[in-house]
Amino acid sequence: MRRFEVNERGRDPLPALDLADAAVVIGSGPGARVRLPAQVAREAHVRIAGDGWVAIADVVVDGKPRLAGEGGAIGDRVSFELGAFRVVVGPAPRDATGAQPQRTESLARELLRGLLGANAAPAFELVQGAGAGSRRALPPPEATLVVGRGDEAGWVILDEDLSREHAEIRRGWDGVTIRDLGSKNGTSVDGTRITAATVLHDGARIVLGNVVLVFHDPAERHLRGEPTSAGPSLPPPVRPRPRPSALPLVIAVGVAVLAAAGVAWVLSS
């Protein structure tokens, strides 16, 4: 099992990922197990397998630029730099347990939020009930927010169908979840009444009594390739550098040959 520590320069460190996969791809595509923003990484940028690594695209390894196709041993640790992001790979502790897919997906969203800007935090829009049209953003992990009609709730919505403490929303390193707190009228997500903590995805519709919330996650939407209005415009994703065309050289050589033939003809006539 290997430990992956993924951090962005100037931001607080994120929790490490312990992965037991035989091979792990670092990149921006949906097939990457360690997923970085497309603005700094190709869909598949580095492949880790066995005790070694191979660069699929140019990357800085332990402070030294390496070209696509180069590789080496992981050893005690190896560090990959892609733009402002650093991925350090090494052996996981003996007592480590493998990270679930939802954690790697959640960390990918957290990494992207810094690029998307201040409005990229996951948020809820109140579409039905008292205060309809208002929004509530969630603070960074690990944070919880209780929704209810009582003063003890963190988000007070004055609706008689709500319990005083109706549901708890949590933004953690495994994503945003909601759980019912034993309310009288229950909590439903996308039409299904929940009985345990449930992971929320962008666009989820939450019903609490007569209150309806819609969950918005700009980072998840961006990772799906959909447009988002959060934050500033991002730089274009990293694309493979096009190989120079040989056509101009062929044309130049052809012109030179014709010119030489013309001069020879003139001199011989």
Largest sheet: 6 strands, antiparallel
Number of strands: 22
Order of helices and strands: EEEEEEEEEEEHEEEEEEEEEEEHH
Q: What proportion of the residues form beta strands (DSSP E)?
A: 25-35%
Physical arrangement of strands within the biggest beta sheet: 2-1-11-10-7-8
Mean pLDDT: 85
- Tell me, what's the shape? elongated
Which value, in Å, is the CA radius of gyration?
A: 27 Å
- End-to-end Cα distance, whole Å, is 81 Å
The chain-level structural class is: alpha+beta
Poorly predicted regions: none
The oligomeric state is: single chain
Estimated helix fraction: 10-25%
Number of helices: 3
Descriptive notes:
The protein is of the alpha+beta class. It is built from three helices and 22 strands. The strands form four sheets. The chain has a six-stranded antiparallel beta sheet, covered by helices on one side. A hairpin with a 2-residue loop joins β7 and β8. The longest helix is centred in the C-terminal third of the chain and has 22 residues. It is elongated. The mean pLDDT is 85.
Give a quick set of tags describing it.
six-stranded antiparallel beta sheet; alpha+beta
Give a nutshell description of this structure:
Helices cover 16% and strands 34% of the residues. The chain has 269 residues and is α+β, with helices and mostly antiparallel strands. It is elongated.
Chain-wise SSE layout:
Elements: E1 2-8, E2 17-19, E3 23-27, E4 34-35, E5 46-49, E6 52-55, E7 59-61, E8 64-66, E9 71-73, E10 78-82, E11 85-91, H1 101-116, E12 123-128, E13 135-137, E14 143-148, E15 155-156, E16 167-172, E17 175-180, E18 187-189, E19 192-193, E20 198-199, E21 205-208, E22 211-216, H2 218-223, H3 247-268
Parallel strand pairs: 3-4, 14-15
Antiparallel strand pairs: 1-2, 1-11, 3-5, 5-6, 6-9, 7-8, 7-10, 10-11, 12-13, 12-22, 14-16, 16-17, 17-20, 18-19, 18-21, 21-22
